[in-house]
Amino acid sequence: MLRQLAAAVVVLSALSVYAPASAQERDALRVCADPNNLPFSNEGQEGYENKIAELFAQTLGLPLEYTWFPQRRGFIRHTLRSQDPVSGQFKCDLVMAVPVQFEMGLVTDPYYRSTWALVFRKDSPLGEIKTPDELFALPAETLAGLKIGVFDQTPGAIWLSSHGLLQQMVGYPTLNADPAEYPGRVIERDLHNKELDGAIVWGPIAGFFVWNDDENLALLPLRSGNGIRFDFAIAMAVRYGDKEWRDQVKGLIEQNKDAIDELLRSYHIPLVDENGDPL
Length: 279
Fold this sequence. Notes:
Layout: H1 2-7, E1 29-33, E2 36-37, E3 41-42, H2 48-60, E4 64-68, H3 75-78, E5 94-99, E6 106-107, E7 112-115, E8 117-121, H4 140-144, E9 148-151, H5 155-162, E10 169-172, H6 185-191, E11 198-201, H7 203-211, E12 217-221, E13 231-238, H8 243-255, H9 257-266
Parallel strand pairs: 1-4, 1-5, 9-10, 9-11
Antiparallel strand pairs: 2-3, 5-13, 6-13, 7-13, 8-11, 8-12
């Protein structure tokens, strides 16, 4: 999901239209997903996107199949737009989570909205702050020694730099070419090992990994303001030209709305409304 948010700023130079498959012709629900990117998805199908896909497959009465590829540059080309060289069939037909501004496919209406969050160790100098802005009120000597992980070209990096904390930022690539890496490792590995005092990550990542170690970690959701957008609405995507399938997916979202909301909350995602207020 983090990688998708970054990729959403890339503008397509040309749009290709693909011949859609009728809903009646489908013999499986074929989903495009990352094999190693909890809490979103993994090959063990433990992520909340996996669980939502299971709901859809059950509703459709179809088996669930995956095409796995790391969500980095080339993800859509190798999944949603990729065809089997023998059968000519597209490898998968649905991406479970994209920003609503996504330009590489047809998107549904949003099915949740979350916000970036500051995650920190409770035993770090950040452990006493109760609001994000209290970070900037810490004593100068405390601020000088902070190390806060941020992904490049993301709201967290802009926010810290706008407050003069460039030297406190520890940068991570948003689109990491190593398929063994995933955004949550910033918390699992570097924050846990005390290489960082805090990290600013996308809300679902923050909520999931803090929940798994709430004895040692805490989070503060970040609120949009002063020209910096932290909250984003998330939709699903299908290929361009496949409007019938997109509309059917919209129906699946509506039909399973209560179950989807329950799933999102079970993964401790910090959900917000259109104004950025917590739900």
